Structure formats: C-alpha cells, structure tokens
Amino acid sequence: MALAIRDVREHDLDAVLALNNAAGRSILELDAEQLRYFHQQADYFRVAEIDGEIAGFLIALRSGGDYPSPNYRWFAEHYPDFVYIDRIVIANAFRRHGLGRIFYCDVTSFAEVREPLLACEVFLEPRDDVVVLFHGTYGFQEVGQQRMGDSGPLVSLLVKDLPSYQYVRDTWLSRGGLPAEAWLAEREPRAQGVQA
C-alpha cells in the first residue's frame, strides 16, 4: 500500500466533493462553489492518496482571511493568529488505520512554522466520543462552545498551543522568512479568474 499526502490538485475536486458529502452528519455538506472557494483560498488543502485513490483530505485556513464560517469567525474574534482546521474527512474504507493522526501530524508541521495556535471544532450534537477523545489525546483543549446558527449543532471550540512557533518566529520569521525548503513552501498558486 503506497500512501502519499500531497496538495490537492484541480482534477481531485470531484472526488473530494463526493467524499465530503458521503461523510455523514459530523461533516457539513459542500457544493462545488464552496469547494472551489477552498481550492482557491485554503492555506492547507491536502489529500491522502493510497494506491492512486483519494482516501481522505484535510482543509485548513490561516487567520486574517474572510472565511464566513461562524467557527472561524469565533476564533478570529478571540485569537489574533492561528491555523484553523475546517474539516478532515477519511473514506470509510480507510478509517481506523491512522490516517487522521497522519493528517494531524502533517497540518501541525505546517502550522507550527507559521502560527502559534492550531484551532478546530468538534460537533457535540451528535456527539462522537471517539472524535472528542482523539482531539484530547492530540493536545487540544476546549476554549468555548457555540451553536452554529439559530438551530444548528452545538460545537466545542478547541485550540492546541504550538510551542515550536516562538523559536521559528525568533530564528526565521523575524529575520527574513523561512528557509527555501520544499517542505516549508506555501501551496502552489491557485487557478486565477475563478470566483468563490
């Protein structure tokens, strides 16, 4: 089994959309326009590919954007700098094989050289104790709760401190930026001319 975690490509979007919308109640559905927004705007949008098949994906955005999600907005009102995990989806056939942990290690590696916090939310309605436990064992702590909209689900708002960030900031970011290494690079420029 050959596993690759890589940036999403345009030709992956149909498979990503189908995977997202088959995920069930714990992931909000997307339409093609919303997915296109993420393709253009997300700072981190990577897929797990196993033997040529999209097995999962994770989307994250840095602070300072215009993403209208009420959970992203909550973090923006409470923290000046963060990387926000909007969603992670693993295909049913590949669940319980550690892909979630692999993604979280990868997004942490991305985030800790850019921002001091990693943020996300988990649904409390319906509550999934495995998801809550996963985030707790990965170092996230609850910093708030909110209901999504007037009648939407209750969510737990979580953050994880990234202690390496201070060293990176003092050593690199305050002195001209990160080294020119492929693993530190930003995503490739997205397609131009497509409206979100």
Keyphrases for this structure?
Aminopeptidase, alpha+beta, seven-stranded mixed beta sheet
| Beta-strand residue percentage | 25-35%
The CATH architecture assignment turns out to be 3-Layer(aba) Sandwich
Oligomer: single chain
Helices, by number, come to 6
CATH topology: Aminopeptidase
For the biggest sheet, the summary is:
7 strands, mixed
The helical percent reads 25-40%
Unreliable runs: 191-196
The CATH superfamily turns out to be Gcn5-related N-acetyltransferase (GNAT)
Structural class: alpha+beta
Radius of gyration: 16 Å
- Secondary-structure element pattern, one letter each: EHHEEHEHEHEEH
- β-strand number: 7
What's the topology here?
Layout (H helix, E strand, L loop, with lengths): L2 E5 L5 H9 L10 H10 L2 E7 L2 E10 L7 H9 L4 E8 L8 H13 L5 E7 L5 H9 L3 E7 L6 E8 L2 H8 L25
Parallel strand pairs: 4-5
Antiparallel strand pairs: 1-2, 2-3, 3-4, 5-7, 6-7
